[in-house]
Specification:
60s Ribosomal Protein L30, Chain: A; 4-stranded mixed sheet; alpha+beta
Length: 83
């Protein structure tokens, strides 16, 4: 389950802007996207990830993704960063 990956990751970028930045800078190892996030917002992250051959996982809930990331609010996307 991707929530576990997020919890176990040593380094994360949380949120749309930070995830996008990590992808653009080549730092993202894997991207996790919440299915209940606004598709207009997540489509760019998905497109960039596919172009750069970065693995994409999907989780059901922004709230759960935020919680797994250690924040008190929902997260639309999270990037697991390379070591």
């Amino acid at each position: 389950m991707s929530y576990e990956k997020v919890k176990q990751a040593k380094r994360l970028s949380v949120g749309l802007k930070q995830t996008l930045k990590a992808i653009e800078q080549g730092k993202a190892q894997e991207v996790i996207v919440a299915k209940d996030a606004d598709q207009r917002l997540t489509s760019r992250i998905i497109q960039y990830s596919e172009e750069r051959k970065i693995a994409i996982s999907y989780v059901d809930s922004m709230k759960q993704l935020g919680k797994a990331s250690g924040i008190d609010v929902g997260a639309a996307a999270v990037a697991v960063l390379k070591d």
